[in-house]
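Design request, tokens follow.
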């Protein structure tokens, strides 16, 4: 992976940051993007501490819900580093736990704008650049909610089903053009999103309940997901495209 450049959206925390740490430790120049500049600056220092082989680390303030911002970000990366070899479209939100009939339409719209349109904008311009190079690898963050149904998460699940469909269809579009496009579907992982949902406001929705949904009876940790993402990005997965890799403690095996 030496002498390659990767973009990780939502890369300042959680799964995104763990993936950045892993790639940088293998000599990959990593650009992380997000909306929180202070958090991004802190993450850059942490990632720089493990970087090897002259890998450079950058943070770009970016809102994936703006197509113009996303296009400019890709152009900025190419202007500085000359190419974009890998991309992890990790930015996403889950802002509500409710059945669809009780859900808030504005919250669903926010998830659509980030989880579907935001990922679409990113992949659109990533693919355009990678086609110029003749090679590239993309991993989109899906979810077990994008494969199976999930209680209290119909709106979120709808956005992640869209991610899976976009990933598989795009993989077919570009399979003969040197591009590989895959997805990762994590189970429940100890990130800021899960922490916000498990805030104690609902006694029926807590870590024990969520853990019990997984045959391993626990939540995952970000590093476990980052391991799968790094493999899919690498040449070790050179014959893998259009695949949604479940890393879910057995959830989808039920």
């Amino acid at each position: 992976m030496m002498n390659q450049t990767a973009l990780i959206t939502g890369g300042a925390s959680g799964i995104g940051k763990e993936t950045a740490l892993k790639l940088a430790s293998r000599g990959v120049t990593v650009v992380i993007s997000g909306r929180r500049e202070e958090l991004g600056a802190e993450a850059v220092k942490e990632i720089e501490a493990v970087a090897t082989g002259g890998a450079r680390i950058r943070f770009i303030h970016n809102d994936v819900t703006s197509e113009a911002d996303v296009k400019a970000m890709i152009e900025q990366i190419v202007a500085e580093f000359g190419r974009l070899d890998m991309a992890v479209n990790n930015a996403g939100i889950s802002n509500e736990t409710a059945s669809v009939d009780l859900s808030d339409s504005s919250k669903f719209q926010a998830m659509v704008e980030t989880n579907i349109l935001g990922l679409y904008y990113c992949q659109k311009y990533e693919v355009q650049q990678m086609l110029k190079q003749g090679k590239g690898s993309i991993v989109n963050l899906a979810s077990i909610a994008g494969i199976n149904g999930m209680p209290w998460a119909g709106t979120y699940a709808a956005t992640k089903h869209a991610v899976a469909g976009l990933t598989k269809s795009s993989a077919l579009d570009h399979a003969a053009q040197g591009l590989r496009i895959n997805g990762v579907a994590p189970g429940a992982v100890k990130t800021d999103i899960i922490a916000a949902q498990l805030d104690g406001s609902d006694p029926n929705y807590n870590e024990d309940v969520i853990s019990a949904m997984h045959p391993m009876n626990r939540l995952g940790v970000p590093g476990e997901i980052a391991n799968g993402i790094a493999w899919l990005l690498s040449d070790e997965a050179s014959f893998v495209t259009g695949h949604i890799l479940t890393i879910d403690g057995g959830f989808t095996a039920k």
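Comment from the thread starter after seeing the answer: thanks! Strands lie at 5-9, 29-34, 57-61, 86-89, 136-141, 179-186, 244-247.
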